[in-house]
Amino acid sequence: MAEMTYLQAISDGLRTEMRRDRRVFVLGEDVGVYGGAFKVTLGFQEEFGSWRVIDTPLSETAIMAGATGAALMGMRPVAEMQFADFVSCAWDHLVTVAAKQRWRAGTPVPFVLRLPSGGGFSGGPFHSQNPESSFAHIPGLKCVCPATPEDAKGLIIAAIEDPNPVLFFEHKHLYRRIKGEVPEERYTVPIGKARIHREGTDVSVITWGAMVYTAEEAASQVDASVEIVDLRSVMPWDKQAVLESVRKTSKVLVLHEDTRSGGFGGEIAATIAEEAFEDLDAPVRRITAPDTPVPFSPVLEKAFIPQVEDVARGLRELVDY
Amino acid sequence: MSAHTAVDVVMPQMGVSVSEGTITKWLKQVGDQVEADETLLEISTDKVDTEVPSPASGVVTEILVPEGETVDVGTVLARIGGEGGAAAPAAPAAPAPAEPAAPAPEPPAPEPAAAPEPVAASAPQDEPAEAEPSNGKPFISPVVARIAGEHGVDPSAVPGTGTGGRVTKKDILAFIESGGAAAAQPAPAAPAEPAAPEPQPVQEQVQAAPAVPQQPPAAPPPPPPVREPAVAASAEPARAEQGEVLEPMSAMRRGIAEHMRRSLDTSAHVTSAIEVDMTGVVAVRAKLKRQYEQAYGVNPTYLAFVARAAVDTLRDYPWVNGELRDGQIVTRNFVNLGFAVELADGKGLIVPVVKNAETLNLLGLAKGIADIAARARSKQLLPDDVAGGTFTITNPGGYGTFHGTPVISQPQAAILGTYAIVKRPWVVTDESGADAIAIRSMMNLTLTYDHRLIDGALAGRFLRDLRERLQTWGESEY
After folding, report:
1. Peptide bond preceding A108: is omega within 30 degrees of 0, i.e. cis?
2. B232 and B379 both lie in a single domain
3. Do B414 and B448 form a contact (C-beta atoms < 8 A)?
4. Most buried among A213, A256, A297, B474, using CB within 10 Å?
């Protein structure tokens, strides 16, 4: 085991796979000479050469189309959007071509798309979004959102191994802030399996990504036994683990950093209502960002992203219900 | 701007993901005058090296983090102005002035505008959920309703600790745990208000039904427990006497118990039996068995023969394949044939259905029966496989029994029972009319039917015609 930041763990997983499998290569804006906007691929070009660490033109369309084509030809590309927000430029190749290829033509498209996402640093509307719900809605795409360094490494390797297009949402706010013990050897974390971040009996928080830590801090502020379920992937998502937790606590708070309407929390809440109705002792509660773009102003951004106090208040209301 | 109150200089966020920075050089020392936006120090992060401008004008009063040290973003590095610090912009370098040079004209700003980390109370995002019920009745949550039902507890007897006195899951579980369920029974026993007043007549019916036949006029029973509702009994947890063992009922067992009781409460069960000479069937089966097994991998069981003949007979007796529904008689042009299948552990029974059995010959029925039986035992049945039956066959004869009175699978009208085939001495009459005793393979069939719809004569004719087919059909008829 070694202590690594969340960012180092992603880097380590990527490097492990590039050393192991010559089909794996990375491409994106500034991933080569500069080492990536966030330095995830720092030193990669020196080790693997410029043909396996490709600096692309400033065109997300080209990155996605190139990755799709390479995957179709049997490679294992790991493409990077400098910020998850820019993926909208790549939508057509991702959604129209890559997601449907397996259904349309029977050919697998095994690429990973790395999406640095999330806010909390006044990045404003174009550098702070969490677009996982949009892609969880697209059949054919998998969406992974690790919260811990250990999961980040295990899931990036699992994503590279996976024969489907996998979107890897890495939360920028966790990059250097979160450190943890990470096994040095190669391992995978199964995609679609939740992790119980904290066990409890009174109320369940269903969340993923950076909100796991918000929930954890809030949980320590309320006088109740709070269970935190870290989904780790939103598509596929671990319905079983969620329902089990709901059956235990009968009170649920669904928490995400993405905006509210059409957010993935709605899917989770609806599933709980359908499949665990008779286990509920309170209405399913959602805490999310409001339906606006992410604001620049630090004050407004704090009002936008769910804060520890918001979650603590939601938990108290559920406990008292 | 000048700093009338102390302004903190903090480690800035030098990029989206940077969480810490190292101080490489202080360009000002304690006591130095610094102008707003003038470079105060240099820092290095893992992304960039940069200069940090002063957030305010004034005298550097404190340096809290020395060069070379790495600290988290937001850590206070230095303080400018305030307290003893020279404030007025006019005042030139005055290392430690004893008093403010001039009274500050403006009132002190409560928050230095340049402070990079304003403490923002985040606005509430959602209105708190309204927990008060709007119709004045106490709200019973789904889980509390379920637990109350399972334990026969009246939730209104449970002290509530939730919002507005609502009974929470914890409350009802604690209540049951403490034996409150049993203790509270006498209270709701009287006109027990079950949340909604409307269902009163229904409740009376239910309670009256057992009361009438159970109480012969002989001895008046002791008054209080008489009106104890049926549910009360189940609230008292069962206790094992010496030598007894308790085991919980499986969901399937409970389902069977409920269905059997309901069927007997619904239909007027009558059973008729008939003896069938199966010698012909035995001969046909002996011939087909190897052929079917080799060609199709399926065993033509006696059950399949009986099923084939029964489906054919049902065409002439639509009521036997029918149903009483809301005062109407339902008949149909198809037969969905249910088969009672015992599960491998011997502790459960399920009735999967072969759909549209009227379209199947012997081979099709044999395959269909084998398929649903195998899937029933391996728990692979789909909900659809056990729904929609119109007539059922049960086959307890495998253990040698020769007669039974099965219970009708609701809402069907009848169930056919097949029993053991045994060789028996039997009187046969030859073409010339001479009687002789012969050894024949005999089987009893029973038809248990709902006398509300089917009279004994109709049942008798059905059994007679079914027997006729089984005794006379050759290979080609199946």
Report:
1. no
2. no
3. yes
4. A256
pLDDT tens string A23-40? 999 999 999 999 999 999
Do B272 and B177 lie in one domain? The reply is no
CA distance B21 to chain A (A): 11
- Token output for A219: 């949980």
Which of A278, A287, A292, A315 is best to mutate for the B interface (most B CBs within 10 A)? A278
- For A119, the closest chain B residue by CA position comes to B16
B16 to chain A: closest CA residue: A121
B119 by Cβ neighbours in 10 Å (0-12 / 13-18 / 19+) ranks as exposed
- Supply the ipTM of this predicted assembly: 0.79
> Beta strand B70-72 with B20-26: parallel, antiparallel or unpaired?
antiparallel
pLDDT over threshold 60, residue B469: yes
Among the three residues A147, A182, A217, which one is the final residue of a domain in this structure?
A: A182
pLDDT range class, residue A150, cuts 50, 70, 90: very high
Query: Is B260 in the same domain as B326?
Result: yes
Instruction: Indicate whether B116 belongs to any domain.
Output: no
A-chain residues within 8 Å CB-CB of B129? 282-283, 285, 317, 321
Q: Do A283 and B168 touch (CB under 8 A)?
A: no
B301, B230: one domain:
no
With respect to residue A190, please indicate whether it lies within any of the assigned structural domains: no
Number of domains in chain B: 3
Residues B16, A7: C-beta atoms closer than 8 Å: no
Which of B65, B55, B85 lies closest to B21 in space, CA to CA? B65
What is the structure's pLDDT at A182?
97
State whether A59 and A126 are in the same domain.
Answer: yes
Report the CATH number at residue A107: 3.40.50.970
If you measure CA to CA, which chain A residue comes closest to B46? A39
Mean pLDDT of B465-475: 94
Mean local confidence (pLDDT), B207-224:
38
Check CB contact of A177 with chain B, cutoff 8 Å.
yes
Nearest alpha carbon to residue A185 among A211, A221, A159, A150: A150
Domain, as residue range, for A62: 2-182
User: CB-based contact (8 Å) between A30 and chain B?
Assistant: no
Same domain, A24 and A168: yes
pLDDT tens-digit series, residues B443-465: 999 999 999 999 999 999 999 99
